[in-house]
Amino acid sequence: MRPGQLAVPFKKFTGSGNDFIFFDTRSELVARDELETPGMIASLCARGTGIGADGAVFVAADDAADLRIRYYNADGSRASLCGDAGLCTVRFAAEQEIGGKLRREVTIATDAGLVTGRITHNDWPEIDLDAVTDLVVDRAVTVPPAEARRIGFAVVGVPHLVVLVGDVASIDVVGVGRPLRRDPRLGAPGANVNFVSAAPGFPMRTYERGVEGETLACGTGAVATAALLVAWGLANEAPVSLSMPRGLLSVRFSGGSRPSLKGEGRLVFEGTFPVD
Fold this sequence. Notes:
The protein contains four helices and 18 strands.
């Protein structure tokens, strides 16, 4: 470090391979405006030259919840919600004893609303989300990919296309997902694109907007996919387990509407980086 630079602390978490840099802005050392800019976030999330992550999470205090998070994609764009980041936030809160050591649940304020989470009996984080909205069982797109057997759409804080295919492993996720993510019929924001097979375990892969590439897991995408699998008659409303490239995510529906997402949330490492 050069003289005059500050060592800013961070933690890196992963949720089934979907990884995030966490900054606790309740600390005066971290509460620096220059950290929360698109350029800085993109630089820190860059793999090979930065810390490397799919996104960045800024944790703050909140009057109506145990904590608040602001979530940014790897390109520096702000997103209202990220399911895997929510799972990792529950783990972060448990490790920091936010809300009290004996509290079973933690409330998290997000740009998409209030999220409640907990550590379950098997030591996995779980979060409760608002009901899935704008569900369309058959969504028209400009150029349907040849691999698609069915295409649906749902909003879980953020918009998702769900593409049912025969073999997820053989899909060119970037080549097929990129034009779908920006399909003109979806409007300017576009959508994440999730590919799923009806094979045992419901294998799933995701092209994620804001990352503009394949991510190893997508929590809100898992919820959207589970909702459409149920709507298509391929799964029932008991917990729907989906196989990500690096792990499992489980989705259950309460009263047939509100989903809960459960999966990995694990601290990978922590460290500091220099800031002028």
